[in-house]
């Protein structure tokens, strides 16, 4: 069963009775689809995170649409091109880029205010709620608010998601073009040392084929999946003639 057939069986009202899939693709374990509503002819994006495993419950999924603000943002451009244009919207407020809280510049410092029903301690200059895991100021406390976040608006979330998808597609296209110069025997250096399962850390390799490299000082082989896209690198020397 294809992913499309599976999702149409799981979401029959959305994908068959009330709408239909115009185009779809599964990228990195995420199912993306352009769905057209039968009544309005509006086309929107469906994003489904799929996890596969062993045992009886060997496939689980979580679906959302583009207006929900999906984190996964590698939807193919051919699907994005089918989506209906988003309505224009504008927001005068500023939002924190770390936690998306509404913030205001007060005395040279960006501060948030407690919304109705919230505790007063969520207000102030720091991202008390919702800031990314691991984000911290130099003193170890929560980071200060910074402008540049997205408004709490489903249209803005969808627009931001589409822009991220297009930016990722362009970045990957450039990475693939750059990788065409890497032929067997080319010595490359990655932007940071890579950690391997045997405990080694290396940043310089000689390309063998596909995702296989070898160490410059030995015949040890290393597998670096998706090296063209996921890692910055530069060519140190071309292959020997």
Provide an overview of this structure.
- This protein has 241 residues and is an alpha+beta fold.
- It has five helices and twelve strands.
- The chain has helices spanning 3-10, 12-17, 77-80, 154-179, 227-230, and strands spanning 19-27, 30-37, 43-52, 59-65, 94-95, 102-106, 109-112, 187-195, 201-209, 212-214, 221-223, 233-237.
- Strands 11-10-9-8-12 form a five-stranded antiparallel sheet, with no helix packed on it.
- Strand 3 and strand 4 form a beta hairpin.
- The longest helix is centred in the last third of the chain and has 26 residues, at 154-179.
- The N and C termini lie far apart (48 Å).
- The model has no long low-confidence stretch (mean pLDDT 91).
What's the short version?
The chain has helices at residues 3-10, 12-17, 77-80, 154-179, 227-230; strands at 19-27, 30-37, 43-52, 59-65, 94-95, 102-106, 109-112, 187-195, 201-209, 212-214, 221-223, 233-237. By secondary structure, it is α+β, with helices and mostly antiparallel strands.
